[in-house]
Amino acid sequence: MEDLAGLLFALASEDRLTLFSAITVERLRLTELARKLSASTQETSRHLSRLQEAKLIKKESDGCFVPTELGRDLAGILPSLKLLNHHGEYFLSHNLSGLPLEFLERIGELERGELGQGVGLILNHTARVLREAKRDVWLASDNVMDLNTIGGGEVGEDVRIRIVVSARAIAGVPPPSGRLEKRIELKLADSVPAGLALNEMLAGVTLPDLTGKIDFNAGLVGSDPKFRKWCDDLFTFY
After folding, report:
1. 2-77 sits in which CATH class?
2. What integer pLDDT is reported at residue 119 of this predicted model?
3. Where are the domains of the chain?
4. Is the pTM for the entire model greater than 0.85?
5. Strand pairing category for 195-198 and 184-189
6. Which strand (E) or helix (H) includes residue 4?
7. How far, rounded to the nearest angstrom, does the alpha carbon of residue 65 sit from its chain's CA centroid?
């Protein structure tokens, strides 16, 4: 625990986090790092010494600072911590335990998503996904879904629709008919522990609340490639 406390102390500074993040992106010298902090070289050097003592960075023969292997590993974890901290209130009231471990470990890929809240949020997002899709739409839900009303006439004629839904959610719902029958690929699952709506460019995910039901009044949306890939991979997993 003492070693962990030392590591956390090394990062327990906004300036040191700024330096560490910059060094994980590119090789930088002391003067360049000082400019990033708008600080003196002496003050910057003290922060760098802390990071070196924690074995997160090292100084090479040309004077550039670079991350150690440990530093690179830690840099991969920081986005997850930043996401959970930035949207702390949301994650306090939502349950991630139903997600596969792989996606919990990659949760930081959602860092550039925007948190939206309010009644109708998911319906509005889904309508946009359908309206703006050029090739594909992917939907996942544990909620009742009428397959014959998807898109409300807004989805393009050439767009393919793939849906993962819990079996109970469409019990008694008529199967797709007419032109939709050939365009919808349906997969039934025992459970769907997250809601998803995405196309080639835009994605959104909503998580269960503390009762275990997917909360369709709050969720993360984004068009960042990493954000969308996380959603796409989770849909494929289902």
Report:
1. mainly alpha
2. 74
3. 2-77, 98-237
4. no
5. unpaired
6. helix 2-11
7. 29
